[in-house]
Amino acid sequence: MPRRSKHQPVLAAILSLLVPGLGQIYAGKQERGATILVAGIVVGTLAMISQTLFLAYAAGAFWWYRLSLTAYALIFWIWQLVDAYKQAK
Hints:
Helix content: over 70%
Radius of gyration: 16 Å
Oligomer: single chain
């Protein structure tokens, strides 16, 4: 008989939508959730700093960098939402 989780996958995904890593923590994967949360904070902070520096010195020259950073953030965000859902199943 398959093991039923006491956690709701949709709620885990919603929590991760609000705060990356929170859905994993809700699903009982505290270390995984904390790692995702810290990674999101570090990468987000570095992205904001680098965006500010690039905009201050060469606004149009680094469009490819901003585009790749946005793509990375979107992929990471979607991945952690799906991961939270799977961890709660």
